[in-house]
Write a structure and sequence with these properties.
mainly beta, seven-stranded mixed sheet, four-stranded antiparallel sheet, globular
């Protein structure tokens, strides 16, 4: 059972930056963290959970939602079993609970295809 723990959320003014981190543990037997694709999703009050960014397991390919492209950067450190989301030029509309997610195999932008989730970390951007 994969466990994911996010950290790094907080309150920031518009235009500021935050870095979220997600620590993974408990890879299934015969699997390692490197065989899991990782994603970040977010959910604002009254809205559905939406894709933010993902990074593949094999070659580190990355995908971004159009709304964050050029501002956010996803990265992973397989030696430390962590994935990060660097968020720059934050906007009030980025305010949400951010979730780290993992799935074995190829990446996906659909939250329905991720089996493992962290508890979420709140990001609030003030105007």
């Amino acid at each position: 059972q994969v466990q994911l723990v996010e950290s790094g959320g907080g309150l920031v003014q518009a235009g500021g930056s935050l870095r979220l981190s997600c620590a993974a543990s408990g890879a299934a037997s015969g699997r390692t963290f490197t065989t899991y694709s990782m994603g970040w999703f977010r959910q604002a009050p009254g809205k559905e959970r939406e894709f933010v960014a993902a990074i593949g397991w094999s070659n580190g390919n990355t995908w971004y939602a159009d709304s964050v492209k050029g501002r956010f950067t996803i990265s992973r450190d397989n030696a430390k079993n962590t994935v990060s989301l660097q968020m720059n030029s934050l906007k009030p509309e980025d305010t949400a609970v951010y979730y780290c997610a993992a799935r074995w195999g190829s990446s996906s932008t659909s939250h329905r295809e991720y089996a493992y989730w962290g508890q979420g970390t709140q990001v609030t951007v003030s105007s």
